[in-house]
Amino acid sequence: MKKRALISVSDKSGVIEFASELRALGFEIISTGGTKRLLRDSGVEVIGVEEVTGFPEILEGRVKTLHPFIHGGLLAKRGEESHLEQMKEQGIEGIDLVCVNLYPFQQTISKPNVEADEAIENIDIGGPTMLRAAAKNHQYVTVVVDHLDYEDVLVELKVNGVVPHEKRRKLAAKVFRHTAAYDAYIAEYMTELAGEENPERLTRTFELKQTLRYGENPHQEASFYRSALGSDFSIAMARQLHGKELSYNNISDANAALQIVKEFDGPAAVAVKHMNPCGVGVGETILEAYEKAYEADSTSIFGGIVALNRQVDEATARLLHEIFLEIVIAPAFSDEAFEILSGKKNIRLMTVPFDSVKKTERRLTSVEGGLLVQADDTHTLEQADVRVVTKRQPTEEEWDALKLGWKVVKHVKSNAIVVTDDQMTLGVGAGQMNRVGAAKIALEQAGERAKGASLASDAFFPMGDTVETAASAGITAIIQPGGSIRDEESIQMADEHGIAMVFTGVRHFKH
């Protein structure tokens, strides 16, 4: 029997060679539009789809393959006598191989300021229909959606004369993953375009970036997937310049470091351990900022991850090189800095585009049997209803310290307390079951440096004991959301100790 292949691709990588080889193997090639022209211009004999259907392409090419002569050839069961009889009666010939990839919808909507009309015009209709039909009927039809599979298919045809059923099934499964992802991009785009915030179904798709050696612990399997429509300012899109492969915990910690460092406009350095900041510093230069971050907790930073929002220069690299660090992330590394840091075999050096638009994303958190979805916490102090509720106003230096603490405490696991001066964190109390416990940890870490320092809390004080604890350590300014029925108790306690206290009206729980 005559063998026929239908080829219609947007991504034309390797298609000329693939079609030529199929012709050499005795396949008749059916094609459409630009693919047909390319193959003919390259000397490959092809039949236009309109010659098969007896109907021209219409509506600017929107309708060309949606025809019984195409889909009958794709969906017919070759082992069913009734199907074969109907094909003969209707003059339908079988199609044995389908090679199709789709209009570049994902690439189109990834362009800046793309118009809705252009995006919608790049929603493929005929392509997914042919792919799904062929994949459904993979018992009889070979379907190829990825140019990386061309060579394997050709080898099977040359060696065996047919593509084995097991291989056809794998190709079909790949097609359904591909079309599902394609539809997910469209669903996500159209949902946003329509302004739907809580659709009855949430459709997302992610691409495998790497298979990890293990998860949080060696006995757990893990993989890292990235969102094709996600932010460029992310670990998923980061460029690794040096070092061994990232681990599951590296990725989690590096993401936490990036989320904190992007809060700052001036030079800033952030050190993270186990998803919490152990040191944050700011300064006139990135060297000064890193020195402050290191000084904040020179013990915990060992084996940590450091994110800097300025290019790493030679002087900063020399300090970074002095201790063991898992990862250093920055917008760039000078040649001298890279040479110094890459002298260590295992340290990961990574860059992300700090100047790119930091796209706000929805936060997806898996729970047993479901998914929690929320808007990212992008609230800033400038958006808050800031009120000084005590008799004493903060000094200019205290205001700077309060602002620094408020930026950091938002990224610390709750219950969270952060003690700072105007240039760096001095103590971090994270993930405690009560707020006084978190305050004691942060103040103990700060030690003598707590005298004259400021304290930030991610949520309100349910009573005055946290203020009392802060006062006993020498804290002179506090920033917190307020909103407790016992706020007055905390205010009175602050006034008794001459502490300036600021309410923001905004809570920053992080679980």
Give the topology, please.
Layout: E1 3-8, H1 15-24, E2 27-31, H2 33-41, E3 47-48, H3 49-53, H4 68-75, H5 81-90, E4 97-100, H6 105-109, H7 116-121, H8 126-136, E5 142-144, H9 150-160, H10 165-193, E6 206-211, E7 223-227, E8 239-242, H11 248-261, E9 268-273, E10 276-282, H12 286-296, E11 304-308, H13 314-321, E12 325-330, H14 335-341, E13 348-351, E14 362-367, E15 370-375, E16 387-388, H15 396-409, E17 417-420, E18 425-429, H16 435-446, E19 454-457, H17 465-473, E20 477-480, H18 487-496, E21 500-503
Parallel strand pairs: 1-2, 1-4, 2-3, 4-5, 11-12, 12-13, 19-20, 20-21
Antiparallel strand pairs: 6-7, 8-13, 9-10, 9-11, 14-15, 16-21, 17-18, 17-19
Structure summary:
The strands form 5 sheets. A 6-stranded mixed sheet has the order 8-13-12-11-9-10. A 6-stranded mixed sheet has the order 16-21-20-19-17-18, sandwiched between helices. Helix content is 37%, strand content 19%. By secondary structure, the chain is α/β, with parallel strands linked by helices.
